[in-house]
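Minutes, project check-in
Item: structure for the 545-residue chain
Input as provided by the requester:
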Amino acid sequence: MNSVERTDVLVVGTGFGGAIIAYHLAAGGARVVMLERGPWLTADEYDHDFKLGSSYTRIFDFTVGDGMSVLGGNCVGGGSVVYFAAMPRAPRFVFERRGSVNRRMWPSSIDRDTLDPWYDRVAESIAITRQGWEDVSYSGGLWAAACRHAGRTANPVPAAVDTAACTNCNWMMAGCRFDAKQSLLLNYLPAALAHGARIRPLHEVQSIAKSPDGGYRVHYQLVDAEDYRITAGEGSIDAKVVVLAAGAAATPVILQRSAAALGPMPHAVGRYFSGNGERLNTAVLNEERVREVLGLELDPAAFQIGKGPTVANWDRLDGSLPEYTRFSLEQLYFPPGLGTILAMPGGPDPRWFGLGKKEMLSHWQKWLIIFQMIEDDNEGVFGPPPARGNADRLSQQMLGLGTLSYKPTLNTQAAWAMADAECKDILERDGLATVTPWTNDLVGAYTVHPLASCRIGDDPRTSALDDRHELRGHPGIFVTDGSAVPAALTVNPAMTISALAERAVPAIVRAARERGVEVAYGAPAPDGSTSGRRGTAPLVPALGG
């Protein structure tokens, strides 16, 4: 009854930052255990509805904060199961950002050139499609046509989607039942399992303490499979190395709660949170003007299908522009249930309810949603951790109240306003649509790509991690999820989170070896491909073999 399980490496979370680490360490011979707060679903369990207990409510975590809400994955595979599979690489200027601290935010060892070999490793492991116009959904094509009409450019988005297997069901946020979306359940995770890694779903990590042998003891609670407010026991696992990849809204909370046992955390733990500058604009299209101006016939049925974001406008991703004026605009399509919740009518008194909202909802088949990603100011700060988990659970599944506080600065507000104006100029030109921007006044900002709450960097005052992703002052603890990314990326972050995780593996291998773990580095891609390994081999010569 008093025995504690032991392993070499314990990974908290099974998303991009966790699965990649687990695969490489397990393939190198280490004993690896992965703890995942959410359930483990298979393709036939992904539901195409919004009912309580469907995959839509089971595999999401929606945490409401003060001024910022966070939507993330809550299942084995993490964000890869629920994301829209857009996989662009970050623009070159991102790595040179200085932000309001007026010093380089990224470690000096990382820029686009040094990260490109690690991007290549990800692209070898997760099949990424360079979509053509024949793959673009109707809504994506309409956005492209509107951009062209306004003198802008638009391009299909690189995506981790097998276009031959995709049925255009538009339920990929609820998990892809056709295995067209290349989630981690199809590559890194099965490869990790094949090498002996073990995954424990419904295990919510609470804190980390020192173990008697000088390693770490990770405490968890077992979560009920139907009601996430209920726990069904607890336990501990001792590990020589701990890798936190629970997400940018959960990883800092675990570390905050661990301070009592481990000692003080770096100042930057739970600070400098970024929502990746995200914001929605909802355009209600004028069917007659779309026909007359763009020569397109608005087919309401076409707006019920799609592949998430398929077309983006990147005209403002120009490194010569001043900071806080660079952004991307991406066509996005939510299924009606979620889209109707998020949108609100415009006018002098916007509301989430009332006659204006009812009128807007009656035209939902004519909506085009534009997702903007700007350069925000890393304003988010986490308060004291809740009694359990990353939030106080408000409902049986999905909904929780967190401690994140986010007050947008003038820099962030100006950047949003600039992107809003660009959306209006493109879509309201010649009466094509009426555009309503998201407003923070009622419910605050939101993000589906939380970043930077435990970021890497060179300055100990503003970064919780060194450039190897190791937690300052706590050797053997690493953070490899979105919380390690220093700042907003102006594009979807999954590819960059994955590349940084690949880059972090050699340092974690070294730390494990120093702690007596017999582990090698140099595994091929999960399917056995080796070109990516050859490309990064010169970067880690001391770990060859």
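Outcome recorded: The first helix runs from residue 16 to 27.
No further action items on this chain.
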